[in-house]
Every structure is written in structure tokens, then in C-alpha cells.
Amino acid sequence: MLLHGFGQYWRSWRYQIPGLAQAGFRVVAPDLRGYGDSDKTPRGYDAFTLADDVAGLVRSLGERDAVLVGHGYGGVTAFNTAVMKPDQVRGVVAIAAPHPIRMAKVRRPVRSDRYGRLLSWASIPFYPEHRLAAANGALLERIVRSQSGPVWKASRDFGETMAKMRLAIRIPGAARGAVEHLRWVARSPLRHDGHQHREALTRPVTAPVLHMVGDADRFTPASSLTDAREQCTGWYTLSTVRGVGHYPAEEAPDLVTRLIIAHATRAQQP
């Protein structure tokens, strides 16, 4: 199951879907809650509900478990699901995504890094979703461009991708849904569900984990992934993809597909 990141939708996995299917896997790439063609609910963007969404989708498809592949916040959701619904997670591939325990450390009053500044921005009421949808989604393109590697953002594929992403973020309610995922992270430390989440994260990830990051990723650098290994009791592999930024699945699609296939194949072995 392929889980997209902030501001994206299922199409971010367009290069992986055919390759995974040809390798014999059943592949599902949903629009996450609040995005694309999925419901734009007024609430339900907390870590627990999102994990329930993923686990419920696995069950509704008639499967006992799944390998979860997530990018950015989709990767965080994959980790959360692996902690909260371990029996339904066969393996995790987290791309450009820290373990949620790292996010709990980052979301402090002093937010000097890029992720912290994004959380601070998302915590403002109403304004962020208005800005995301304004000017035909121009802000979203600036965000993605600033996080991408030089080769991809100079390509025709980048321009085509941004045109489609800017269109998708203007679907009524989609900009708000995108922000609500981050807004919960920003506001939860002072709330009961945030405390419950931190308690849940004391449990380890028992499923095998492949952690992937681009060496030119300024938003989620490899140094931000150091906590993950300590949270995983199954086998854990960190793979650094050279020459790419925050979007390895689109910047180095063939390599990422091969790595996912290898990990998913290994995770299926008894």
C-alpha cells in the first residue's frame, strides 16, 4: 500500500505502481483522508484515526496484512500504523520520513529547522489552507521546488507533475485536509490525544523497515532519521539515494521501485 506525502495524491506513485504489479504484488495507492478524491472530513486527522484508515483499507480489500510504503507524512503514517496495528503491517518502507518519535522531539516551541517552521505555519488557523489554494496553488509549487533535487526540478516531468498537483490542491477542501494532517502534529503536544500518541510510541516497530532518504534532501536530511533504528526491533536498513532531494520516488523512480520490490519480497518470507 503506497501512502503519499504532504500536498500530493496517489499519482506520486505513478512510476512504482506498474513495476510493483509486474513483480506480482497487489498494489493500492489511495488518496489519504482529506486529499484528492477521498472524503474531506471536518476532523479525523490525528495519528490514531489515520492508522485506522490504513488498517481499515487493508481489511476492506480482503487482505490480512500489507507492506506499507509511505513518503513524507505518508511514511510517518506507515510508522504509526506499524506501532498501533502491528498484526496488519508486514513491512514498512519509509521514504523521506522520520519516525514519529523524532517529530515529537522536533515539535517544541523553538522551531529552527524547516520541518519546525512548517509546523508553526500549519498551526495558524485558516490562513495556511487559504494560501495553499490561492493563485492556482503557486505556494505548493514553491514548497516542492525548494525541496527537490536539481535534476528533477529542471525536467519536463517536474512541470507536468506540478501542474497536476496544483490542480489537485484546489479541489474543494483538499488544501484544508493537507494542512490538518500537520496541524494535528503541531497542536497535539498540549492535548490528551497527543499524550496518548507519545505513550503509543513507546512500543517498537516489529515489522522489517527500509528507511530511504535522498542525499540532497534539505527537508528531511539523513541526520533526522537517527532515532528510527532505536525504535525498530525487526531488521532495519537505511538507504541513501544519491543526487535526489525530498521526492526519491519521482526523482529516482527505477531505483526506488527496485528497492521497494526487494524489501517487500524479503518481508513476505516466513
UniProtKB/TrEMBL annotation:
Residues 2-252 form the AB hydrolase-1 domain. It comes from the Bacteria. InterPro entries: AB_hydrolase_1 (IPR000073), AB_hydrolase_fold (IPR029058), Epox_hydrolase-like (IPR000639). One of its GO terms (molecular function) is hydrolase activity. It holds the Pfam family Abhydrolase_1. Keywords: Hydrolase. PANTHER family: EPOXIDE HYDROLASE (PTHR43329). This is Alpha/beta hydrolase fold protein. It comes from Nakamurella multipartita (strain ATCC 700099 / DSM 44233 / CIP 104796 / JCM 9543 / NBRC 105858 / Y-104) (Microsphaera multipartita). The lineage of its organism: Bacteria, Bacillati, Actinomycetota, Actinomycetes, Nakamurellales.
